[in-house]
């Protein structure tokens, strides 16, 4: 079971790239929904910043966490990697909920708001107020690992130059802060297809190459 659990995602990443980030990761669904709250800031006439961070931060975090785990035996990524947090906290919440129901208690379990959920809340707040897309693009250690394995992937965003009108719409829409209009995607691209969807001339497509 452990081998299958490691081999299947590894093969998928080597062939398709960061598809876990773009198609499966729960944060890939939650964060875009949360970032829609930025329109509320505009409605309230509050400043919404667009801070960009260095993409190498996620590799530094992954490397530091690996060293700490090897030397000190402390799995710090277990506490800050969002898919792990959501899986762990959901299981804990459901278990406690059923235990309380069996005891005849149907009130809300406020213990659900643990340190992990508070961490996710802070990430969401930062995405809304100051740095949209910063976690997945520049800080996620899982994304760093998938990017490192995606260098020779087969599934890529391809641009038909004759159809491109240099409108920059795809660059602005890319959640990974890449530049598909000038073919600058590479291993960081998670094949989410957002740039393909927003292109007004259909110059972009996901193709095996």
Concise account of the structure shown:
The chain is mainly alpha-helical. 56% of the residues lie in helices and 5% in strands.
Main attributes?
single chain, 209 residues, mainly alpha, two-stranded antiparallel sheet, globular
Characterization of this structure:
The chain has 209 residues and is mainly alpha-helical. It contains twelve helices and two strands. Strands 1-2 form a two-stranded antiparallel ribbon. Helix 5 (57-72) crosses helix 10 (141-149). The longest helix has 21 residues, at 82-102. The protein is globular. The two termini are 32 Å apart. The mean pLDDT is 87.
Write the layout of secondary structure elements.
Blueprint: H1 2-16, H2 19-24, H3 26-35, H4 38-43, H5 57-72, H6 77-80, H7 82-102, H8 115-129, H9 134-139, H10 141-149, E1 155-159, H11 169-173, H12 194-198, E2 204-208
Antiparallel strand pairs: 1-2
Helix pairs in contact: 5-10
Strands in their spatial order, largest beta sheet? 1-2
Q: Low-confidence parts lasting 5 or more residues at pLDDT below 50?
A: none
The helix/strand series, from N terminus to C terminus, equals HHHHHHHHHHEHHE
Radius of gyration: 20 Å
Number of beta-strand segments: 2
Mean pLDDT: 87
What structural class do the secondary elements suggest?
Answer: mainly alpha
Main sheet?
2 strands, antiparallel
Q: How many helical stretches?
A: 12
């Amino acid at each position: 079971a452990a081998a299958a659990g490691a081999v299947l995602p590894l093969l998928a990443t080597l062939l398709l790239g960061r598809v876990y980030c773009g198609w499966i990761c729960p944060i890939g669904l939650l964060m875009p929904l949360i970032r829609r709250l930025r329109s509320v800031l505009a409605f309230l006439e509050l400043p919404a910043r667009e801070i960009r961070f260095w993409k190498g931060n996620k590799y530094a975090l992954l490397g530091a966490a690996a060293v700490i785990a090897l030397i000190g035996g402390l799995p710090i990524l277990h506490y800050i990697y969002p898919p792990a947090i959501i899986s762990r906290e959901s299981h804990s919440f459901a278990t406690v909920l059923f235990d309380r129901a069996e005891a005849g208690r149907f009130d809300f379990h406020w213990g659900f708001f643990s340190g992990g959920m508070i961490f996710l809340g802070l990430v969401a707040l930062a995405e809304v107020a100051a740095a949209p897309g910063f976690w997945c693009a520049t800080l996620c250690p899982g994304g760093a690992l998938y990017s490192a394995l995606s260098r020779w992937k087969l599934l890529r965003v391809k641009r038909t130059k004759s159809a491109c009108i240099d409108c920059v719409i795809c660059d602005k829409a890319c959640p990974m802060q890449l530049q598909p209009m000038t073919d600058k995607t590479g291993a960081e691209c998670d094949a989410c297809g957002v740039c393909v969807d927003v292109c007004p001339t259909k110059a972009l497509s996901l193709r095996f190459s």
